[in-house]
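Ops channel
N.P.: pipeline sanity check, posting one input/output pair.
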């Protein structure tokens, strides 16, 4: 079974686009998440999702 060169080139262009697009999307989503949290007033927006403070402050006044 011989794969045409045109098909190999097409798949390699698609793969290169995916390899470039995934890290760019990750950076943009992290930046957007940090910006949203910053606008809400969260001071530590670079914290990982699993690390929550032991005593979360209450919004009740």
């Amino acid at each position: 079974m011989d794969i045409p060169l045109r098909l190999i080139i097409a798949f390699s262009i698609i793969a290169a686009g995916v390899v470039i697009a995934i890290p760019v999307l990750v950076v943009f989503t992290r930046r957007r998440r940090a910006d949203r949290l910053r606008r809400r007033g969260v001071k530590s927006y670079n914290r990982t999702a699993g690390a929550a403070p032991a005593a979360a402050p209450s919004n009740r006044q």
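N.P.: looks fine end to end. Residues 5-40 form the longest helix (36 residues).
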